[in-house]
């Protein structure tokens, strides 16, 4: 397992794009690529969608934020044949909730991308302030699902492995419980990937450390 973490001050536009380049340079055919993004998202005056980085300036989006197009192009054009997983904990600004705007998640569901993704919300849903300020709900939903043996829905004998449906079901249940039903997480996997096992259930000790 090779990983690169950008946190706090290090999550600048330049470093995120460097991270994309690192993926392109290191991923080989048959590998599994996993990307986790947590932060704000917004649209510019032309309704282009962006992921906000540490140094993002909404008035200078093209120069200071990571465009959705850059992410999709990297996933589609620059990576070899591999399994792609995206966890998206993006909190859209009011500008990203305009009626009639195309949902960016549709790009991830394009069949040619072969993507499996989990999102903390629909990206077109207003999130109440108390929900938006509650950091870590999505991550806790993931780790709690991975530590709950009941998440393994496969009938006897249970295999202690979770596929996208089992993980997505657990995340949705826990995020909705934490938000009293006001936040709607979503997940998607292509038909060819729905039965793929993604994670092994945590041991109890591992769950305690993750929480």
Globally, the shape reads globular
% residues in beta strands: 15-25%
Low-confidence stretches: 205-211
In spatial order, strands of the major sheet run: 3-2-1-4-5-7
Main beta sheet? 6 strands, mixed
Task: Write down the overall mean pLDDT.
Answer: 86
Supply the helix-strand structural class. alpha/beta
Q: Which bin fits the share of residues in helices? A: 25-40%
- Which H/E pattern describes the elements? HEEHEHEHEHHEHEEH
- Please report the total strand number as a whole number: 8
Number of H/I helices: 8
Rg result: 17 Å
| First and last CA, distance | 21 Å
Structure report:
- The structure is a single chain.
- The protein is of the alpha/beta class.
- It is 33% helix and 20% strand.
- The chain has 8 helices and 8 strands.
- A 6-stranded mixed β-sheet has the order 3-2-1-4-5-7, sandwiched between helices.
- Helix 6 crosses helix 7.
- The longest helix is centred in the C-terminal third of the chain and has 15 residues.
- It is globular.
- The relative contact order is 0.13.
List the keywords.
single chain, globular, alpha/beta, six-stranded mixed β-sheet, 211 residues, two-stranded antiparallel sheet, 20% strand
Concise summary:
By secondary structure, the protein is α/β, with parallel strands linked by helices.
Spell out the blueprint of helices and strands.
Layout: H1 13-26, E1 32-43, E2 49-51, H2 61-64, E3 66-67, H3 68-78, E4 83-92, H4 105-108, E5 115-119, H5 129-132, H6 137-146, E6 161-163, H7 164-178, E7 186-189, E8 197-200, H8 204-210
Parallel strand pairs: 1-4, 4-5
Antiparallel strand pairs: 1-2, 2-3, 5-7, 6-8
Helix pairs in contact: 6-7
